[in-house]
Design goal:
A hairpin with a 2-residue loop joins strand 2 and strand 3 (about 185-190). Helix content is about 65%, strand content about 5%. It has two domains: about 5-120 and about 195-210, no CATH class; about 120-195, Winged helix-like DNA-binding domain superfamily/Winged helix DNA-binding domain (Arc Repressor Mutant, subunit A, Orthogonal Bundle), CATH 1.10.10.10. The protein has helices at about 5-20, 25-55, 55-65, 70-80, 85-100, 105-115, 120-130, 150-160, 165-175, 195-210, and strands at about 135-140, 180-185, 185-190. The termini are far apart. It is mainly alpha-helical. The chain has a three-stranded antiparallel beta sheet with strand order 1-3-2.
């Protein structure tokens, strides 16, 4: 009967046995769990990519085979997806790859998006979607927010996030090139960048493909 254990897990277990005799089977089981989780993450991202691209799985495979420009993007998607288990990030990665399929002239930018997403938290993507084309003001004083202005506090109340969580999300979005910040009187003003708009548009396409106006998954 053929052994069904994944080959990388068996190799890892054998290597561990050489270093520390007796721990090989334990390491092999741990690696099998890790590889299974990687497979689930990649499947989730690819599922969204298929939805956003508007192609079937078979058509998508054919496009990748016929257009070499997609191979580095696919490789980046599979790698980055394997490194995170956060639902919103997996969806965003899949959406970016799905959008890139019909926009290969901007393949380099989509690759930057995939790399940048890995350094975000899942809820950061939700904050990005709230920024849209608006300026967001993060006021550092105790004063009331100015009326009619999009602020970090307003976004926090809308999403049910603490003020600090929104503030840190904005900082992380800036660090990965999805937003810019400018110090202004009494606080910081944030604005989405061209890279952030590209990701935002991909996320909107994901919602449209899902037909519900919300992200494919609801868990954070």
């Amino acid at each position: 009967m053929q052994n069904s254990e994944p080959l990388p897990a068996k190799i890892g277990g054998e290597m561990a046995s050489v270093i520390l005799p007796g721990v090989g089977p334990l390491v092999e089981r741990m690696l099998t769990v890790v590889l299974d989780e990687w497979g689930r993450n990649r499947s989730k991202a690819l599922e969204v990519a298929v939805q956003v691209s508007g192609l079937t799985r078979e058509d998508l495979a054919e496009r990748i085979e016929n257009e070499p420009e997609l191979v580095p993007l696919l490789t980046r998607l599979l790698w980055e997806a394997a490194m995170t288990g956060q639902s919103h990030l997996l969806e965003a990665m899949g959406a970016a790859f799905g959008a890139a399929i019909g926009d290969l002239e901007r393949a380099t930018e989509y690759e930057l998006i995939l790399g940048g997403l890995r350094s975000l938290h899942g809820d950061d993507v939700r904050v990005l979607r709230e920024i849209r084309d608006l300026h967001v003001f993060d006021q550092r004083s105790k004063e009331e927010d100015p009326p009619g202005v999009q602020t970090a506090k307003v976004i926090g109340r809308r999403l049910g996030f603490p003020d600090e969580a929104v503030a840190f999300a904005l900082v992380r979005l800036v660090s990965q090139g999805f937003a810019t910040s400018m110090t202004v009187l009494g606080g910081v003003r944030y604005e989405i960048t061209e890279l952030g708009r590209l990701l935002y548009d991909a996320l909107e396409r994901m919602s449209d493909a899902d037909g519900s106006g919300v992200s494919v998954g609801q868990s954070r």
